[in-house]
Fold this protein.
Amino acid sequence: MLDGLVPVLVSTLLLGSMYSLLTAGMSLIWSTLQVFNYAHGAMLIIGGYLIWTLSSTAGLPLPLAVLLATVAMAGLGALVELVVVRPLASRPDGTLMVMVATLALAGLAEGAVQLIWGPENKQVQPVTTATFDIAGVAVRWTTVLAFLLAVGLVGGLMLVVNRTEWGASIRAVAQNRDMAMLLGIKPGRVYLSVFAASAALATVGALVFATTTTLTPAKGSGPLLIAFVVLVFGGTASLMGTLVGAYAIGFIEASTSYWIGLQWSPVAVFVLLVVVMLVRPEGLVRRGS
Amino acid sequence: MSADTVRLSVTNVTAGYGKLQVVNGISLSVGRGEALALLGPNGHGKTTLLRAITGLGPLTGGTVELDGERIDRLGTPAIVERGLMHVPQGCTLFPRLTVGESLNLAGRLKRARRVRSANLELVLGLFPKLVERRGQPVGAMSGGERQMLAIAMGIMANPSVLILDEPTLGLAPKVRHEILRTLLDIRATGLSLLVADGDVDFLFGLADTWCVVELGRTVGRGTTEEKPTQEQMMAMFVGGAHAPTALAAGPDEEDGHA
């Protein structure tokens, strides 16, 4: 069994990094508005297509393409908050209305992506195809890069949320909106920044996604489902839980695929999800401050 | 009270929830360094009035002025920035923030930043318990400690008028006394207070003037030097049929501001 440990751990590193980047933004939105953003998968796909357009079509170097796409997607995330979320969030049953609106937005985005980029598969060329060797297993440098991006960005986000005034404002609005307003915090601004940050993180997740697999307009639902599983598995509203959950799900997928069979991977993930929900409904990591 | 000494002026305010009007035209005013006690039976509009004044609840009519400037069309953050702070009833604050983080957050307003250190020193002096609790999450504090923190956060916002809604609710007599002593100290610094509470001794120990709200109207006013009679006390806390004629006949239209 130990024979396959290195490839399993390498796959865990790649999958966990991708999943944590996908889920961190969603976790941030959940912890602030208690809303599940169904359009998050669509944001990832649009971000991926933007990176593809800027790098493959416009010929920009990949890092610059990612940077421009991330900024553009942060703007789009802010626009979604302004146009879709803000008018609905303050109404009675606003949470439900926002969730339904994001679901509609996901469908709209899928259609728009198909109209703009067409139905063909697209793949972003990785920044390098070089590998190095661990115990006879060739490991791509892009896997290491994905890990550094995930831990750096999600860890950085944790630091920002827990150590800065902006982070304290986010936590304050999430815990007591009225009291936050009484301290001069404008919830609208907090929500706007959270949606922008979430879309930006999804775009970096899209880089890992689009260099690992192919992009099609309808592919947003898969990562969305995974993000939901990670959110519940790691503990909702906890960024540390997102990191732990993402790598745990990555390990379950990788080990089941390697040792049992690819078709058993989703079965194992969802069986474990049900067990976690029954035994530890708060998720693997309890909600911190 | 002359116009230049009035800090907060509430004129003919109406407020409610949807089609239900809870506050039916209340007027009151609070002067510089003055404390006004708001009394009345539960469910007769005191909290709705206070929430409407600070923009937390919908204000359907009337005007609110702070230091002569109309603030009733502003959002809550803008109202607080102008100097009107409100500690709501049964406020849970931020359960997963630490005491230190909560105090820092309260001092982030523009008007409070320049005096943040001085105010922090002041509140930690007024509530020494907060010093030892600084690193603890608010959710782990007792009701009394949380109320002290809520008042401390109100002071950190550096207001000119502080509204307190039921500051002694559910607290032990010793803690009530401690909070009363502290609020008297705060008043001495020139801060104006508008306080609603169910504890008459607490209110009369703190305030200069009082005003009774019943069925969304003011039905009586006075100064705390004139203690209300037993009958008047019944009107304050039971209302309705118990309201004495003298009190019930004294609405806002007659006497204007308190």
Notes: The radius of gyration of chain B is 18 Å. Chain B touches chain A at residues 54-56, 75-77, 80-81, 85-88, 91-98, 101, 104-106, 108-110, 137, 153, 157 (CB under 8 Å). The first helix of chain B runs from residue 46 to 53. Residues 241-258 of chain B have pLDDT under 50 and may be disordered.
